[in-house]
Amino acid sequence: MLPSPTISNITALAAADYQTGTLENFYFPTNGTNLSKLLNAGSQTADLSGLFWFTTTTNNFRETNSMVDIGYHAAATLNGVPLDSGDGIFDLFQDANGNGALDSGETDWTSLNDWGLRVLITRPRNGSILP
Q1: Which residues lie closer than 8 Å to 108 by C-beta, 6 or more apart?
Q2: What residues does each domain of the chain span?
Q3: What is the spatial distance between Cα 48 and Cα 42, in angstroms, rounded to a whole number?
Q4: pLDDT exceeds 80 at position 98
Q5: 22: Cβ–Cβ under 8 A, 6 or more apart, which residues?
Q6: Dihedral sign, Cα of residue 46, residue 52, residue 53, residue 58
Q7: Distance of alpha carbon 95 from alpha carbon 1, whole angstroms
Q8: For 31-48, what is each residue's pLDDT tens digit?
């Protein structure tokens, strides 16, 4: 016989007091209200949930590796634009599994500020005659 699941920590809310933010109308207040009880209330860290680059609050702080917030997540932004380390591609797109770490097969967004923009010229090939 399988053991019965147990719930050790239930968070009850009196009301949903969402705030309007950069990308949507369903951000959580950062403290002192009903929905703020859901901040850092998950069962694992945000990076393990694939939510490193996302937020639930109007201050747009990324979840990173904090205990994950319970609820809908939006992309963390700066001035309304998802975060980018400098190569013109949003970091959350380059980090395929959303864990905030550079893994095999992912574009290296972590060192772009060290060497700047990289330009690859593929045509004409070396030794080609140009008209």
Answers
A1: 102
A2: 17-131
A3: 11
A4: yes
A5: 58, 60, 74, 77, 80
A6: positive
A7: 41
A8: 888 898 899 999 999 999
